[in-house]
Amino acid sequence: MNHQTPNHAHEPRSLWRTRYGVGLLVLGAVAAFFLFAEHRAHIFGALPFLLILACPLMHLFMHHGHGAQGHHTGADQPRTGAEEHSQTNQGDRS
Fold first, then answer.
1. What's phi and psi for 29, nearest 5 deg?
2. DSSP for 25-77?
């Protein structure tokens, strides 16, 4: 007689699903509320500087493909207007 037990029966429970984990979450939420309430002026005072800092960061992370203009090969190479014109007019010779 082989009794098979499911694999998840012996797995330990996650910390966040225990009452201690819930208590830590509540304690963290209360601490975050009081930190925000007491330091609101400091946080809002730093927002303009964070907006200015976001500009170069967006430039670095969002424009990463601009440096490879001359290195296209094969199907990745952009088509020019002259190539498109010569391909569309091949059968139009009258």
1. -65, -40
2. HHHHHHHHHHHHHHSHHHHHHHHHHHHHHHHHHHHHHH-TTTT-TT---GGGS
pLDDT digits (tens, 9 = 90+) for 17-47: 899 999 999 999 999 999 999 999 998 999 9
Q: Which amino acid is at 15?
A: L
pTM score of the predicted model: 0.41
Instruction: With beta carbons less than 8 A apart as the criterion, state whether 72 and 79 touch.
Output: no
**Packed helices 19-38 and 40-62: angle between N→C axes, nearest 10 degrees:** 100
Q: Say whether 70 sits in a helix, a strand or coil.
A: coil
